[in-house]
Each structure stands twice: as C-alpha cells, then as structure tokens.
Amino acid sequence: MEFVNVYFPHPPNPTSGVLILVPKQEAIPLNLTIEQGLKLVLSGGIVTPDRLTQGQITQ
Questions:
Q1: Alpha-carbon gap, residue 16 to 13, rounded angstroms
Q2: Measured between alpha carbons, how far is 52 from 31 in angstroms, rounded to an integer?
Q3: Distance CA 45, CA 10 (A)
Q4: pLDDT at residue 54 above 60?
C-alpha cells in the first residue's frame, strides 16, 4: 500500500501543524494555487475558492 504525506497546518500560524500519512487512494489532490491555499489556511477556512464552496473540486 502506498502512502502520501499530508500536512494539516494550524491557523493562523501555518508553520505549526500535523503531518500524517494517508493511503494514496484516499487522498484527494486539490488544484489550488499557493496563494489560494495560504488564504484558506490563514483565514481558518473563511476565505475559500469558489470551486470548493460549490463542490467542484478538481482532481
């Protein structure tokens, strides 16, 4: 079984967080820019890209 590293940052400080191993087939890669990802993390999820709030996650 293959695993991928997934980092869950703690808002508002993304330099602290938790790193976990997730089975590769269960991971959903998101098509976000670095800017979008940082906005999502630093806002605590308040600021989200439209495609995430509309359920249009692209893989």
A1: 6
A2: 10
A3: 11
A4: no
